[in-house]
Amino acid sequence: MLKKFFSICLLLSSLTLNAEEIPAQIELEKFLDNTKSLSARFQQKLVDKYGYLLQQSAGSLSMHRPGKFHWDYILPYPQKIISNGKKIWMYDSELEQVNVRPYDQVLASSPVNLLDKNQKLDIEFIVQAMPEDHGQSWIKLIPKNPESDFKEMQIGLQNSAIKTMRFIDNFEQQTEIEFEQLVVNPEFEVSYFEFDAPKGTDVVGDF
Fold this sequence. Notes:
By secondary structure, the chain is an alpha+beta fold. The protein contains four helices and twelve strands.
């Protein structure tokens, strides 16, 4: 789950596309070119290859380029994942534990870490158009690297903004995230992308 999460963060924070004659790709490029920060609520689900629901979660997301994000999971249990672009904090309030890791070290394990370097999408992915579905324009990204952690990524756009993201892994499990109440270019306090561990929290990792 964590690798998929960081893939999503990288895609939203730093993706640069090559303007091919694929309408959804052009639409996504325009959206990302105009987006320096965003906030949204999200619903997330994981299903197996037969379509059986394995996990559901929900919460809110805030991001600011480059490298800053704040995921606040409410369901199924409270959890925060925060980055200031240098460190990433993964905080579980029920366990009273926070795992701290270097930003670059975590992202090095992601198959889309190059996107943070403003390289073109089609260097690492085969880009394919998909049929419109549920009022959304879709685009499919297939990793060229055979050792990638996922087989394909699907992005749905509605009203010229990202609405849905899907990741299909090598076990045919599918993670889908649907965004709601998306706000483009909100302002954030710098401290919102920092984490101060509550008193009594067990701190694990690089701090």
